Amino acid sequence: MTKKENNLVLLSSDEEYCGGQSSSSKRRYRKTKSQPPLPRKSIRQAKKARVLGSRSCLQKDSRNVDEFNLFCEDFDQVFSTFKVSAGSGSICRNELWIDKYRPHSLEELAVHKKKVEEVKVWFEERLRTPKDASGNNVLVITGPAGVGKSATINAIASHLGARLCEWDTPTPVIWQEHLHNSSAGIQYTSKLDEFENFIGRMRKYGVIPSCFPVDSRQPVILLIDDLPLTSGKAALRRLQNCLHLYVQSTQVPTAIVITDCARAETTDLTVRYLEELQLCLENAGACKVAFNPITNNSIKKIISRICSQEQYNLAVEQIDAIAKSSGGDLRHAIMSLQLFCLKPSQICSSSSSAPESSKDEELPPTVVNDRFSFQFGRDETLSLFHALGKFLHNKRQSRNELLSDSEFSVQESLLRRPLNMDPPEKILCQAHGQARPIADFLHENVLDFMNEEAVDDACVVASYLGDADTLLSSYEGMLARHNDAENILHLAAASVAVRGVLFGNSHPLSSRWHAIRRPKLWQIEGSSLFNKKEMVKQRFIAYGGISLAHFSVIATDYVPALKWLGSSVSGDHENLRMLTEENTDFDLVNSGDQESHTSDEEIEDW
Amino acid sequence: MLWVDKYRPKTLDQITVHQDVAQNLKKLVTEQDCPHLLFYGPSGSGKKTLVMALIRQMFGASADKVKVENKTWKVDAGARTIDIELTTLSSTNHVELTPSDAGFQDRYIVQEIIKEMAKNRPIDSKGKRGHKVLVLNDVDKLSREAQHSLRRTMEKYSSYCRLILCCNSSSRVTEAIRSRCLNVRINGPTEEQIVRVLEFIGKKEGLQLPSGFASRIAEKSNRSLRRAILSFETCRVQQYPFVSTQAIPPMDWEEYITEIASDIMKEQSPKRLFQVRGKIYELLVNCIPPEIILKRLLYELLKKLDAELKHDVCHWAAYYEHRMRLGQKAIFHIEAFVAKFMSIYKTFLISTFG
């Protein structure tokens, strides 16, 4: 039964989640249909469900006791079952390789040795003196998805012979269910409440091995893999408080796993909340270990190991491509591998006729590889600032490659060496760059990257940026926002701005570290608008009204005169000025509003 | 109260500078047949004063009872509704507004809001429906689409309301609108006229005016009566009794632009360009319109420039001024002009002095 379920995983993790739920535990009989809040989570659920299925039904029964699930990872047993399945690869074709090749010992982990050692030592210390109330029993592990954070904890727990308790995130309740439940008399408790209860219990009583007929002398490690999602400041505050208390008073060695998201990819608040939580935990005295993306070499090693066990022969380049496209995400790499190995012959033959994509210059330009990485790779993303850095530093290839293959004859002064990067449009696309902010950022920062003497360059760049600006505004107002024509116009404008900067800055400074500033322009626009309104208002009051004066008249004629006059009226004006100058973080009324805020915060980390 | 406001003529009869125009307007209004009007002329020439006097002539004292409203209008534009914020000044009989404040959404104002305003007409004492007067400022800053819809509005509601349009340059108003209005050109006052006004104010205030002082102010005022009166008043505050050689306090922003110009002449480098940008930002924050900045900057640069470069620099100033009007963010284009100037000037310096 579970095997069948696992087939579904390939198609959709959502399906699996539901299926896994219903099959794995009767406790969730009421939650027939539910959405996974995070994709990461659903995979985990899947893992667990499968593991459970392959074990005895004794544990299945014992699971439905509480909303958090303590299960004794009887690793030896599991390990042996896995050994069996791994030995006969052809039989278990239906199994997911991620589960099949889960690391079970420290040696199998692809994570850097030192990191593993660090975590292991930490746990060893805690377990050796478990009743020492040092208040430092919490370890925060951060890192991108798929680098083996949870796997490390699992492996270490089994290595130390510790029992692993997990906070099992309750399934979200959808509205219809809630209605049904409430009519049936079941009270709804928020997930955050449940988590708080759980944490409170853990804090006060430690792990109660009530449902486990196991040796109570066995040390216990608590793993919190999913912090509840919080929406809104209040909920976040609660969660913070509860965790803070926990960190300070718990006796159980605890690992909290937090997955980093690339900040540029999301303007999501939850991500920011996670970061805040992380900070809060550290402040409370928790240790922190940050996991890095897994190196290409380690991924390659793992892939080749799996390949040899599964008896597939992959070319070195193919392994290379898988590793490269995974972006340090081992889980993803193994999934790609399995997909790739499904029908290798078909994919190769179909791709050899396909047009070559221009990715991955470093790889030998075999069609298969390009095509391959194109199909299975995670989309690379760049942060806006990374992209801007590329444009502003303007790295070009060395001179000797010049002129060799230029098809057009161009004047000497207009010639530029080929770019040492992807085409600008592609970078823009990866960075989700919107034309307006890109142009503003470039305008703000480009002068810093220019040679001291190169006024001509500055002139060319300024002119191109002006062009971009003109393009951006040409259809302003005439077309609706989602119109295709405007989209194209924006693309063109971004392209003109970027290429103009790249072309114009023909004598870039040798690369050194530059801060990239947030465009001052935004702030200027905001306060200018504000000043305008105030001026007109003040003028009207001072004059006693009968006619509206235009702000330009006021600004150019009245305000300077009033300054000289120093009358009581001008006193108001002075106040006004002070007020607006203080008001530096003026909200933009412009369309670039949201963008500006996010990038504002990003820039501080840059 | 500032002298500019205090000595502003309240009625058409009081107007001295454009007496002939005022008398003609009076005749027009008393004959009860007032067409749409388009006043155009440079800033500080007295358009607004004329318009207000005209309205007073039409409606009497009720025109003085005005209220300012900063209202958000909800306009249905196809699939969505747009919120437009607009400041209006209105009495029972007239409404004054500046549609170009709404930026590129100005056409909605011209179409929708004017329609709404034109709908509720005041009823005069005899129960007859009167005309409502709409005063639109800065018509030349309206986008082309807005001007087109304005034309429609003018035709459609001409029986309900009269439009009085004000602008600086009639060349930026479309032909269609101009032909539907009675065009009234308001010249900038001549220096003699300014001197006469200043002397009049001086007499009223009981001031001794040394000979030649008023004409110096007039000269400095760039033929803007408003500016002349304002600087006259500042002179009064600074030093009285007047001395004929007394310094006339300059406008701070003009000083600032002079400073920028000398900065540009001194050094031409990206770094300096960046500093200049900062100073232009300063001006923009204080709401000095970018066109005026560019114009003034050109003027200051030309003062110090070698004759053979003047032509070129003017050309580029015109070029970037045009781009600025097409574009959205003025600083891009002002900076492009400054960079261009630096580039030209540097090449010139190198070729001349090696």
From TrEMBL, chain A:
Location within or outside the cell: Nucleus
Alphabetically ordered keywords of this record: ATP-binding, Cell cycle, DNA damage, Nucleotide-binding, Nucleus
ATP-binding found in the keyword field: yes
InterPro entries: AAA+_ATPase (IPR003593), Checkpoint_prot_Rad17_Rad24 (IPR004582), P-loop_NTPase (IPR027417), RFC_lid (IPR047854)
Domain AAA+ ATPase residues, every copy: 135-295
Keyword DNA damage recorded: yes
CDD domains per the UniProt record, alphabetical: HLD_clamp_RFC
Disordered: region residues: 16-45, 587-606
Recorded family membership: Belongs to the rad17/RAD24 family.
Subunit structure: Heterotetramer of subunits RFC2, RFC3, RFC4 and RFC5 that can form a complex with RFC1.
PANTHER family hit by this protein: CELL CYCLE CHECKPOINT PROTEIN RAD17 (PTHR12172:SF0)
Name the record gives this protein: AAA+ ATPase domain-containing protein
Organism: Citrullus colocynthis
Automatic annotation (TrEMBL), chain B:
Keyword set, alphabetical order: DNA replication
Keyword Transcription: no
Protein name in the entry: AAA+ ATPase domain-containing protein
Pfam families on file: DNA_pol3_delta2 (PF13177), RCF1-5-like_lid (PF21960), RFC_C (PF22534)
Organism name: Citrullus colocynthis
Domain AAA+ ATPase: 33-192
Gene3D superfamilies named among the record's database cross-references: 1.10.8.60, 1.20.272.10, P-loop containing nucleotide triphosphate hydrolases
Any coiled-coil regions, as ranges: none
Domain of life, per lineage: Eukaryota
